[in-house]
Design a protein that fits this description.
This protein is an alpha+beta fold and about 450 residues long. The chain is built from 12 helices and 16 strands. Strand 6 (about 180-185) and strand 7 form a beta hairpin. Helix 1 (about 1-30) crosses helix 2 (about 95-125), helix 2 packs across helix 8 and helix 2 (about 95-125) runs antiparallel to helix 11 (about 400-415).
């Protein structure tokens, strides 16, 4: 329950801040260009907080529905305008001013992403080294000759100091169906290059996070002793008499060296009895565990005790001096924006599953996780959501900023504004598409939670 409250609060703060920053881009640009702003709103619907400020008596408000915001400007299309203020009405402005005001919102989101990514690179981004375990047979990684504990030094011409960077670099190559050259260092320190043929990789991308696993790349995890940390009350392990601190010595008569063997045995024996020999306080005990069947796999209700500093040799901190960090912030924002657009394009042609679309519930979950994970995770989460808002709003869909910019581009070509009927029809179409996207996002969120 506490985690849910943390997630909801983190979501409201995150969206409120990012939407406010986006709308501030519209507001400050309009103000500088001499356009009168009537209202600045974070959220939609009934105002919860409201205050009128400044010579122009601008209404600043926080509204009840925290899923967006808007800046209302003086405009003859929305109501009568006094004769002495016609020169400050938005619809009377030259095309270049309207383009700057509309484009400022997404630009501010992208600028914020650059700043946040740069800040994380300056502080230092922790990550796991991209060391792989033995690739499963018949996978592309195995066919390429990769071996256990190979370190992915670079993918193509891009260095990959962390597992996350390796995933992003390889995802880009998969989307482009390229043959990619991997620079690899084996556990003896010898460096070699191997070619990964991606031309025929036609697996529909259901989940980007599982990409490396599907290709045969699995994170190498050092041997974790099979010692129980937590036992959930009422679950299979609790009913079997397993206690925290127990060390599993054998399962069905087979010696157990590491936790991976425990997970494999439990997951492949749903509703089947497993004989266990455990060690507790120096004494051996025989127990019988019957994992519960859940979606065709076994669940026991236990977790492993991770030895202190077990992963320390496999962790790397990516840190740069300020100017280099700023440049890397620009590069990462560009790369992530391009990747986002590629993913959207592939969804339209069916090569990437629409299951990847997430909505408010997923954002709230990740917001809560990032709060628990620390400063770097929170800054990175803010950066990716800000970037996503910027890219989404630049899409050429009516009602979004990108749709308005498209209308202005047509106006510039035609040398006259679009007929009001055309603009109204485009707005209705854009609103319909946006509602369909929101329904899909909510459906995916609910499916992830309850499916």
């Amino acid at each position: 329950m506490i985690q849910i409250l943390i997630s909801v609060l983190a979501f409201v703060i995150t969206i409120g801040f990012l939407v406010g920053f986006h709308e501030f881009g519209h507001f400050i640009t309009a103000h500088v260009l001499g356009i009168r702003v009537l209202r600045f709103s974070i959220g939609f619907g009934r105002p919860l907080l409201q205050r009128t400020i400044g010579k122009d008596q601008v209404e600043f408000q926080v509204a009840a529905i925290p899923l967006g915001g808007y800046v209302k400007m003086l405009d003859e299309r929305e109501g009568p305008v006094a004769a002495d203020e016609l020169d400050r009405a938005f619809n009377r402005q030259p095309l270049w001013k309207r383009v700057l005001v509309v484009g400022a919102g997404p630009f501010f989101n992208l600028f914020l992403a650059v700043f946040l990514y740069g800040l994380t690179f300056m502080i230092g981004v922790p990550g796991l080294k991209p060391v792989i375990s033995e690739p499963p047979p018949d996978t592309l990684a195995a066919e390429a000759g990769l071996l256990e504990q190979d370190l992915l030094v670079a993918i193509g011409d891009r260095a990959t100091p962390t597992w996350e960077q390796a995933t992003m670099a390889l995802l880009e190559q998969v989307l482009n169906r390229r043959t990619v050259v991997l620079t690899v260092e084996n556990k003896q320190g010898e460096i070699r290059q191997v070619a990964l043929e991606l031309h025929d990789y036609e697996s529909r991308l259901e989940d980007p996070s599982s990409l490396l696993h599907n290709l045969g790349f699995q994170q190498y995890i050092p041997l974790i002793p099979p010692v129980i940390d937590e036992v959930l009350t009422g679950q299979a392990a609790d009913r079997a008499g397993i206690k925290s601190g127990d060390r599993i010595m054998t399962m069905d008569g087979e010696p157990v060296l590491g936790w991976r063997e425990v997970v494999k045995s439990i997951s492949t024996h749903p509703d089947q009895s497993l004989s266990l020999e455990i060690e507790r306080s120096g004494q051996r005990h025989q127990l019988t565990l019957t994992p519960e069947n859940q979606d065709g796999t076994g669940m026991a209700g236990i977790s492993v005790r991770i030895p202190e500093n077990l992963l320390e040799p496999w962790i790397v901190i990516v840190r740069y001096p300020p100017w280099t960090a700023a440049w890397n912030g620009i590069v990462k924002t560009w790369d992530m924006s391009a990747l986002t657009l590629q993913m959207m394009g592939r969804m339209l042609i069916g090569e990437v599953s629409v299951k990847n679309v997430g909505g408010p519930i997923q954002i709230a979950q990740f917001a809560g996780y990032s709060v628990n994970a620390g400063v770097i995770a929170s800054l990175s989460f803010l950066a990716i959501v800000s970037l996503s808002l910027g890219v989404l709003n630049l899409l050429p869909v009516p009602v979004l900023d990108g749709g308005h910019l498209l209308v202005y581009a047509v106006e510039g070509i035609m040398r006259r504004p679009l007929p009001p009927l055309w603009e109204s029809m485009a707005q209705r179409l854009g609103l319909t598409l946006l509602l369909m996207l929101m329904v899909l996002a909510f459906y995916n969120d609910l499916h992830r939670v309850f499916g």
